[in-house]
Amino acid sequence: MAHEVRVKIDTGIIAHKDLEIIVKEDGGKLGTLLISKGNIEWLPKGNSVNKKRLTWQQFAALMENRARTVKAK
Fold first, then answer.
1. Average of per-residue pLDDT values in the chain
2. pLDDT of 59
3. How many Å apart are CA 17 and CA 35, to the nearest integer?
4. Which of the listed residues 2, 33, 52, 70 has the most CB atoms within 10 Å of its CB?
5. Measured between alpha carbons, how far is 47 from 42 in angstroms, rounded to an integer?
6. Where are the beta strands (DSSP E) in the chain?
7. Model confidence pLDDT, tens digit, residues 25-60
8. Closest CA to 55 of 35, 28, 27, 69
């Protein structure tokens, strides 16, 4: 399962435009991650209307409670 992640950066500071990260798996699009100063959103492949949205506080809680712990370098 090879992943490819591409980042489109229009500015150094996220102000009025989202940071857009396109995630691909085995050559096919998995989805798009949209990062803004207010929240983080996931737009699944083939879906141009319904995003999954978390506030930064919700994202932090999700990562604390559900993510696997690994050593930081």
1. 87
2. 96
3. 9
4. 33
5. 10
6. 3-8, 19-25, 28-35, 39-44, 52-55
7. 998 999 999 998 889 999 999 887 899 999 999 999
8. 35
Domain spans of the chain? 3-66
Dihedral angle at the C-alpha atoms of 23, 39, 48, 64, nearest 10 degrees? 50
CB 50 within 8 A of CB 42: no
Question: Structure pTM?
Answer: 0.77
β partners of residue 28: 25
Tell me the CA distances in angstroms from 73 to 33, 60, 70, one per residue in order: 24, 20, 10
Cα–Cα dist 39/5, whole Å? 20
| Amino acid code (one letter) for 57 | Q
Backbone angles phi, psi at 17, to 5 degrees: -120, 145
CB 37 within 8 A of CB 28: no
Quick check: helix, strand or coil at residue 38? coil
